[in-house]
Design brief:
Blueprint (H helix, E strand, L loop, with lengths): L1 H9 L3 H23 L2 H18 L9 H19 L22 H16 L3 H12 L4 H8 L3 H18 L17
Helix pairs in contact: 1-2, 2-3, 2-4, 2-6, 3-4, 4-7, 6-7, 6-8, 7-8
């Protein structure tokens, strides 16, 4: 069914293209947001990718490659926006977590851990973020990631390795509370 929709879009059927774009938009937006770390720029990247897709859909030779092709267009749009956008100053609020609560009842810790992970991912280079997002979030193989990014497989592996290593170094298994912080008892 999807193949037929892609084939209709390739033939210029606007409704078929709209159906494909609507089905892909949330995933492309999530990928762009994770890569760019900015919701507004992510929306711009997805819009740019979809405009490019509509303009060039007739060049798509294999209807089965729709998803990979759209990923490629989205990632390229992310790279263009990142290159053209001046670096923004970020203001971060550093909060110390409470001492280790019972994980089965405290959901705020998982939210805090997720927020911290997102900040740490944001500190990676754009190249490393793109590989990590496509591999772990989009669940693509490294071969597919390399193809989408237009890089050798060894480069994709290297970026995955160094990006993962940087995250491991900055993300200990458990958050720690420095001495003298909230919740610590003194004798």
């Amino acid at each position: 069914m999807r193949r037929q929709t892609v084939e209709r879009a390739i033939q210029g059927d606007h409704d078929a293209f709209t159906e494909l774009a609507s089905a892909s938009m949330d995933r492309q937006f999530a990928i762009a947001t994770l890569i760019l770390r900015d919701v507004d720029r992510a929306q711009d990247a997805v819009q740019e990718a979809l405009v490019s897709a509509w303009r060039d859909v007739r060049a798509l030779r294999d209807p089965e490659a729709w998803d990979a092709w759209l990923h490629r267009l989205t990632v390229r749009a992310c790279y263009r926006l990142a290159a053209s956008q001046r670096r923004r100053d970020l203001v971060e609020l550093h909060m110390m977590p409470d001492p280790m609560p019972d994980r089965s009842t405290d959901f705020s810790l998982s939210v805090a851990e997720r927020d911290r992970m997102e900040r740490e991912i944001g500190r990676l280079s754009l190249d490393q973020r793109a590989v990590l997002v496509l591999h772990f979030y989009a669940d693509l193989t490294l071969e597919q990631v390399a193809d989408i990014l237009g890089i050798p497989i060894g480069t994709a592996k290297s970026r995955l390795h160094y990006g993962s290593q940087a995250l491991r170094e900055t993300m200990p298994d458990r958050p720690t509370v420095p001495s003298g912080q909230v919740g610590e008892r003194t004798a």
